[in-house]
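Re: beginner question about structure tokens

> Can someone show what the tokenized structure looks like for a real chain? I only ever see the sequence side.

Sure, here's an example I had lying around. Input first:
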Amino acid sequence: MNWIELIVHTTTAGADAVSLLLMDAGSTGTMTEDRADIPDPSKPHGIWEIIDPKLLESMPEDVLVHAWFDPADHWPDHLSHLQEALRSLKLHNPAYGTLQVEFRSIPDENWGENWKSFYHPLRAGSHFIIRPSWEPYSPLPGDLVIEMDPGMAFGSGYHDTTVLCLSLLEKHLRPGDRVIDVGTGSGILAIGASMLGASQVLAIDIDPDAVRVAKQNVAVNHAANIRVMEGNLLDRTSETCDLCVANIIADIILSFASPLKKQILPGGLFICSGIILERQEEVRQALCTAGYEIIDAVNTAEWAAFCARRP
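And the corresponding structure tokens:
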């Protein structure tokens, strides 16, 4: 049996929405191919991949979201739903690009390994290395190696927003800090905080599948001081922390920046990302209005992150 690989042409702004749409349409998993996720070696900003520098030149101009479908699993119904959903998405979101669709057949013995070719060891900040389990890497003195198999639905930690958060954790987390990771996803930021010397870490996510994946990754990285929990932080627990990190989206940061203060101890830090560059000033203003002091801000060509101190 052959699997169907579907490829949607979009933009950085549209990649997450397209990926979610493909999953809703019945895809067994998605993978995003985006030039913005591969740091340009001519513009160093603390993020770089340990791979052939020609990779950037070989990548397509469009952002490509790959998805895999089982043709025996009601494929015609999935395709009809998907085409209609893409037409609607394009109509209401012109910034998402052409949303052109390509198809190709993937032999059964190859489809599950096909996506692995996109992932290689990546350095984030000064010390973190994000390493897929199938890629060899010899650590340098001081390296903190996070083994992170992305699967095909929860990301690998390669996105700029994740790397920005890791870089800010590296700069601002103090050994012994209690940390909460909101919307933990794969658990990578919780694992990074643990490696940096956090005394205890709560990793929380509303998605039960993300919680399952995070628990697996925590176990693989032997991070015994991380507790993974399902639920909404503000409703699920009154636990407090010295540092809260949230790599989510701008709208959620805007909505809970103020109520989140009850979870962060006075003088504690809030590191947040998932903020597309066009909305960084909106988020900055919201943090200041909520009473936070911005102590650090970093960005890439597409994304921004803040470290703010709670009063």
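Each token stands for a local structural state, so reading them left to right follows the chain. Confidence is low (pLDDT under 50) at residues 41-56.
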